[in-house]
Amino acid sequence: MNQAWVRFLPRPFRVQLEGRAYLQNVVANTGWQFADNLVRLGGGLVVGVWLARYLGPEQFGLLSYALALVALFSAVAALGLDDIVVRNMVRDPVCREETLGTAFYLKLLGGLLAFLGAMAAIFLLRPQDSLSLWLVGIIAAGFIFQSFNVIEFWFNSQVQARYVVIARDGAFLLSCGIKIGLILTGAPLVAFAWVALVEIAMGAMGLVIVYRRKGNRLKAWRGRIDRAREMLRDSWPLILSNIATVVYLRIDQIMLGQMVGSHEVGVYSVAVRLAEVGIFIPGVIYWSVFPAIVEAKAVNEELFYERLQKLYNLIVLAAYAVAVPVTFLSDWLVGVIFGEVYARAGLMLALLIWANLFTSLEIARSSFLTSMNWTRLHFVTLILGGVLNIGLNYLLIPLYGGMGAVVATLISYWFAAHGTCFLFKPLFRTGLMLTRAMLYPKVW
Prior knowledge:
single chain; mainly alpha; globular
């Protein structure tokens, strides 16, 4: 039986999808996630630009610094459970309530630890800066509400992204409206931190509502100690890997703030924000095909590697489609969108956009490592990338400021995603697959 939207497709696409229920679900799921990210891209860009112009480089840099510092502890809040929970529910759907309940309590504990860690860090880094303390404290409080994200994992395991999209986009659009109101009324910087917290809380509430409307009950969730131990045994390398990931994703902004100042963070953050506009694409592709890759691993090894290669190729093509035009239009984009006060971000953007290629490949490679249960090896590669990033930032930021951070990012991202594949024998094949994808990304 075909879904209703299939009949509106051009005939060549319709023929490929007719009678293939799972493929139709994957395409529909991808469409919903693209719609979600387009809403966030459009709304976030408009409001983000308005906010950056309103605050100026100094205050925008301070807000970006606080967000980056909080992000360092997001891996502790997530506990590396995202892929593990989806994998377990695909493999054992009968134990859904136990899986969700156990993951919820684990993430609640992780959120509390992440909040305390973020507060301890800002007290150590800027003990006399009360505004920074408030910004970090308010934003980090959102970790507590993120325990309800386990509902999102359930819908992902069922390839039903539309319910998550409805919940999250409602909260996002409302928060955008609040931010616009605050800008128009001349609100202080700390007010925008409160909006970030409110958005997370409303998103959690929305997930609960759609979960219950699908006939599910939160009261049915059951946490079990033995299942928690099993999850943590599988996920602890992912926790460390995710910590390494956020370190080399966000440490540049923190080091810039500590070594140069908030103004430089503001200019650099504009380049980062524009470079990240297209990074949602590999995430959408990944979450749509990850269950199929897990299933292929259990069925046939050649089918597993065939699907992996197609995933790598598709993600590289998506990265190229964004990076090439942005490289040539970077100065114009920054000037038109953010204004001349952020003009130095143009060259930063032209180089930084290529880091998305390696970030995308890392996202794709994680599906391989998770399916093989090689989470420890994943951790080692990310640690190496994180250490390289910190070292390069330490050497280059004092000399070149934001441009030094850009160069450090490019080199370390490539090394973590691709270069490390040739240091470890089990990853050599996937390293060649990634190379092939970058040189000849054939998807047909």
